[in-house]
Amino acid sequence: MTAADRTLLLRQAHRLTMLGVTVERARSKLKRLVRRGVAYDDQEMIQALERFQAVELAWKLLEAEHLRLRQKLECTPREKDRH
After folding, report:
1. Using 50, 70 and 90 to split pLDDT, how confident is the model at 38?
2. How confident is residue 3, by pLDDT bands cut at 50, 70 and 90?
3. What would the pLDDT profile of 41-75 be if each residue is shown by its tens digit?
4. pLDDT beyond 50 at 30
5. Is residue 3 part of a domain?
6. Is residue 56 part of a domain?
7. How many domains does the chain have?
8. What's the 3-state SS for the chain?
């Protein structure tokens, strides 16, 4: 694995972490709305749910991409092993 590969993995891991924080904030907002007794068909609840679903999907997609890349890079022979 090259330094550029490691940098890419680290950047992705950082994005995953930051996106994870966003997911948890969206989840917390949903929980607060439920505790307040906001109806499920209320516009505020619908918007909060849509936001949560969108950021959760983004996180899952980025995680899958990150895991594929990590697996690919771990399986790639190092340069010195190719000679």
Report:
1. very high
2. confident
3. 999 999 999 999 999 999 999 999 999 988 988 87
4. yes
5. no
6. yes
7. 1
8. CCHHHHHHHHHHHHHHHHHHHHHHHHHHHHHHHHHHCCCCCCHHHHHHHHHHHHHHHHHHHHHHHHHHHHHHHHHCCCHHHHC
Asked if residue 82 is part of any domain, the answer here is: no
Provide the residue range defining the domain that includes 52: 19-76
Contacts of 9-16 with C-beta under 8 Å, sequence gap 24+, read 9/66, 9/69, 9/70, 9/73, 12/62, 12/65, 12/66, 12/69, 13/66, 15/62, 16/59, 16/62, 16/63, 16/66
